[in-house]
Specification:
Elements: E1 13-17, H1 21-27, H2 32-53, E2 57-64, H3 72-92, E3 99-103, H4 111-124, E4 131-138, H5 140-157, H6 167-172, E5 184-187, E6 206-209, H7 219-230
Parallel strand pairs: 1-2, 1-5, 2-4, 3-4, 5-6
Helix pairs in contact: 1-2, 2-3, 3-4
This protein binds 3-methylbut-3-enyl trihydrogen diphosphate (2 copies) and magnesium ion (MG).
Length: 239
């Protein structure tokens, strides 16, 4: 018999690498963009389900620093989808309970997107529902490099003493500074790599790989991943 979720042992933070949109479209002889469109619908459904289950934080990988190298047409399509997502959530932000944050190189995004992000973060900052964190133009290495740069600036200024630099301080200079590390990291589409996602934060995350392509990933699959997570013994290097 299939096991049920133990609601007393939920992962507080789930991170998801939403992969497989292109293959999903290809299988249907549709353009790549149709896969991204379907993937954005899946995202809505999965966030809703995660909130229903009682997950506190969900971070999704929407666009990596490497994804800028894709054809311009695809990049533009993805940015327009992002625009749509921000606009929808802005108009829903009165009735919705999501607290939304964006991580990544936001200065690299279109100016109108940057403005919408600012507004959405402001409008939802006191929300008590699920924390939805969207990684756009995000790369773990870039995030760490930016943190190193900022910490160095503070050291040069004399605001931070060299001896005070430790893991906790570095973590405070990452985009995820107020967010607990992910407990569970899910990747869809059968690929088993992290592709530069939350490389600092996932040091002790439990990894779960699903063969489903992202547009096909559903509420049941999310529950299966959580049940699997609950069967793991997390040791954090201890005895
Ligand atoms: C994931 O789908 C979404 C993004 C990377 C933006 P892909 O577009 O990578 O889909 P596949 O991996 O080609 O199937
Ligand atoms: C990772 O998927 C990035 C996102 C899901 C946004 P990719 O499809 O870009 O990763 P690789 O190229 O397979 O490693
Ligand atoms: Mg991919």
């Amino acid at each position: 018999m299939k096991k049920d979720i133990d609601y007393n042992n939920l992962p507080e933070h789930i991170a998801i690498i939403m992969d497989g949109n292109g293959r999903w479209a290809k299988k249907r002889m549709l353009p790549h963009s149709a896969g991204h469109k379907a993937g954005s619908e899946t995202l809505k459904a999965i966030v809703e389900e995660a909130e229903k289950i009682g997950i506190k934080y969900i971070t999704v990988y929407a666009f990596s620093t490497e994804n800028w190298d894709r054809p311009k047409e695809e990049v533009d399509y993805l940015m327009n989808l992002m625009d749509e997502f921000l606009t929808d959530n802005l108009s829903a932000s009165k009735k919705n309970n999501y607290k939304i944050q964006i991580i990544g190189q936001r200065q690299r995004l279109r100016k109108d997107l940057q403005d919408k992000i600012k507004k959405l973060e402001l409008n939802t900052k006191d929300k008590k529902g699920i924390n939805l964190i969207i990684a756009i133009s995000y790369g773990g290495r870039d995030e760490i490099a930016r943190a190193v740069k900022e910490i160095s600036r503070q050291v040069v200024k004399g605001a931070i003493q060299l001896d005070r630099i430790d893991e906790a301080l570095v973590a405070r200079y990452l985009d995820t500074k107020d967010i607990k590390d992910p407990d569970l990291l899910i990747r869809t589409s059968g690929e088993q790599r992290t592709s530069n996602f939350l490389i600092w934060q996932s040091a002790y995350s439990e990894l779960y790989f699903s063969d489903k392509l992202w547009p096909d990933f559903n509420a049941e699959d999310l529950k299966t991943a959580i049940v699997d997570y609950q069967s793991r013994e997390r040791r954090f290097g201890g005895r």
